[in-house]
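Appendix B, example 12.
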Amino acid sequence: MILTRGARVTGGALCGVLAVIVASWLVRDARAAEFGQLWRYWAGFYEARPQVMPATSAMDAVLFVVYVAVAMAALRSSVGAPALVVTGVVTLGVRLPGLWSIGDRRMDHLFSEDLRSRALICAFVALAAGAALIITAAAGRRPPADAYEPTPTRPGPGAGVLAFLLLCAAGAVLIAWEIRQVVRYSEIFPDWYVGGDRVAQGLTSPPPGWATVLVALLCAYAGVSAAARATHARPFGLVAAALLLTGGVLGVIRVVHYDLLDDFGSLPVEDQLMVASWFFQAFASVAVLIALAPRGLADVRGPHGPGQDPWCGGPSGYGPAPQPGPAAPPYPGQRPPAPGYGYPQGGSGGFGPPPPPSPPSQPPPGW
């Protein structure tokens, strides 16, 4: 199924609205907190001292890129429908905690009332747009008009297996660290997942634990879809890899900034595993992006339905072998062939109509 023209335009417009909302908050933070201090705050540097508390996180920067890419895909790509669905799901997951965290009393000391009001309005608009993306993708589907119209493509066998292994492994690593976080620092539960005074959280960004679980579940679902070579595996896998890349790159930046590789052997085992996890996330996300970015394989559709090649049939092509049709009727004067092998019986033994029958013998003269 592909999108109608109206659904493509609607999906592109909704993604544009979401991109404008995110861009406005990113510009606000870059101006108020200085960009140099802003990215240091995103990376988790201890010495970061922004002039004001940032309202965004590094996930917002990635979401801006995702919104722009999906807007283009909705207008032109054959995978526009699943791209709109995964964008709507991610938007709902990221913006939902803002409904209760923006109005929390701890935000009174960090952000002005006017800024919090605007953030709450933007959260409602983003949630409405995310739900509208899913509805548009579901209601705007149509079958291809003919056998040559592009249809959603599937990842190749090698790309699907690679994406399955890397995304599911990355999701398992994230969940394992979340379990370790709750066991070791049980006092921050449940603020780590729903927000609270004991965790650092931006005005428009979700709580750290909520965001991590969201990315882990998305990676697991995208990995299983890639193994099944579903038509929605490529957009889901690309968005999951983009979000996973954020944590991996920021982790590698922290490793380089604090020279953790120089003293890697002297680090505690848990810190060594954390460093290895950051590098693995960065590697896995880049590998999945490279594997799923190509167009993929389209279903071969023939005149009798999907899966049949319009030019080939039988053992040398796809689909069942063509059935023989009825024999052509003989032209006038042609006798039907006799059963068995060899030349047709009767006539002169060659091709063409048989000679006319001989006239009857005449009696000898005089009889």
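The mean pLDDT is 83. DSSP finds eleven helices and six strands in the chain.
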